[in-house]
Amino acid sequence: MNPTTRRSVLRGALAAAATPLLAGCVTAGGGDQGPALRGQITKDNPLGVALDAPLEVVIFKGAYGDQYALDAERAYNQRHPQAKINHQAIQKVGEALQPRFVADTPPDVVDNTGAGSLDLPTLVKANQVSDLTELLDSPSLHDPAVRVRDTLLPGVVDDGTFNGRPRALNLVYTAWGVWYSRTLFAERGWSYPKTWDQMLTLCGEIKKSGIAPWTHQGKYPDYVGDLLVSMAFKAGGNELLLAVDNLEPNAWKHEAMVNAATAFAELVGKGYVMPGSEGLSHTEAQAAWSQGKAAFLPCGSWLESEQKGVTPESFQMVMMPPPQLSTSDKMPANAVRAGGAQSFIVPEKARNRQGGMDFLRTLFAVPQARRFAELASALPSVKGATEGLRLSSGADSVRAAVNAAGDNAFRYRFRTWYGTLKKAWDDATGELFTGRLTPQQWADRVQRAADAVARDPNITKYRR
Length: 464
Fold this sequence. Notes:
Layout: H1 3-13, H2 20-23, E1 55-60, H3 67-79, E2 85-90, H4 93-102, E3 109-111, H5 120-125, H6 133-136, H7 156-159, E4 161-162, E5 165-166, E6 169-181, H8 182-188, H9 196-208, E7 212-214, H10 222-245, H11 255-269, H12 282-290, E8 294-300, H13 303-306, E9 317-320, E10 336-345, H14 353-363, H15 366-376, H16 393-405, E11 409-410, H17 414-417, H18 419-432, H19 439-455
Parallel strand pairs: 1-2, 1-3, 7-8, 10-11
Antiparallel strand pairs: 3-10, 4-5, 6-8, 6-9, 6-10
């Protein structure tokens, strides 16, 4: 693909056009910023970083803040004292960086996270993201006898791999499930349900107590949509999960999918969802839950960090795996969706690409990963990083859920690989939760979107 065509693809496919202020961030004149800087490869510099090369780091400043990155930058500077580091903490990553990728003047390392992140499959297709094999095969900082890839938790490398090449590395080992207050449940004598029938029975008790059983982030249906498909995958097993990711015909019409949609439609039909939830943002729904207005909330393990300063200290939030649709589910009750999040990339056109990789080598070493866990109340993707570390109630419950799941932790990729399918899934799930779609109509609509992706020759397909 020639540069003009590639840039046209990027302009049309990446998130939003840059504002005049952001466009001004592009290197004067645009165009290629020159060959990547490289230094001599030595035992202490296995990635061949040019020792005096400046390093530009862009961090998504969301629930986890950016102090962990500043700490990692200081550690990087201890090994590369001549390097001047330009640290930028932003929120709308796609909006800020789109013009720089188009102009071939990207930063050296990017935390591509948040609602406005860059579309990773588009960047991969345009060869704008480095293959991280060199980094993964380099010696880890905390144990040079072990490669970086071998220090990571199961599934982390796979989560950022596209057609056999690792393109992103996820700092956080995230689990997704159902959240509740341990304090509230202890006071009321409630126990977390393992099956959906038990869930409905408990919801009836909760409603009688004057508390809404559920709320959810209605403006962002993927929160509850994730819980729905996770329950379907637990029922249908890994075979169904792979069928969905591989765009196989009628995967979304599988009995387990329809049954999971039916289960969530029951919550609405029985009045077990807090009125007005469909109009709430994530922060609004989570605040209502933290205030005790609802018992259950679907979310990932970033929730506790995101709710700091809002949730009472006595709340004791905990996360549990989604209930089974029935005891005949193919996956056990402790199966949970878990895998990498907080995605870091090294742009292919980065001036200090080797420095970007070495920054990740620093960030993914045990000392920095442990520091991240302490600051963010979250599990890092590095083995052993939280051993002996006393965690908050939420983070500790996530660690317990991940440990209990073991090999039964699962992950899916369709929402990362196919943006149009994710959008159709979001929209259909939102309508399911407002009663505008029946469970079968929900399944049919998402299947049509999956079929459209499968037929489109312009969309790169991925398989597991």
